[in-house]
Amino acid sequence: MADKQKYVLNEFPDESGLSFNEVDFSELNLDESFFEKSEFEECDFYDCVLRKAKFNMSSFYLVYFDGSDLTEANFSGSRIIESSFDNSMLSKANFTNAVIDSVVFDGANLEGANFQAARFGTDVTFRGADLSGARLYSTELEGIDFEGAILTGAFMPDGSVHE
Fold it and tell me: pTM of the prediction?
């Protein structure tokens, strides 16, 4: 496999419908970037700053956001498959109506994140993640690994608030 292409800041347009394959965005500051309806395959976003980035209606396959700041990022309606958000900051991130399958959120800060109506597949883990105040309405959580996760104040699928 060839080395991943490395982008530098401002080298790509800020618009929707882009396609990225084997691109390394690691350690870039991409605050408030607009990637709506884009496709990402085998891309790295290690240690990126992506606060308020708009990824809604995008697709992700083998994409790694480990250690990144995705505070208030929007993934609504996206498909996220075989990807990772290990130890990432995802407070107030929006995953409404997203399809999430074989994704790792271990150690992530997901305080106040919105997973309303998200569809979880197999092998989704939130080990040691902080989901305080997260919204999990209208989701099916069976089979998801929450070992060591903090769910204080999370709004559960049945409408109850986790204590």
Answer: 0.89
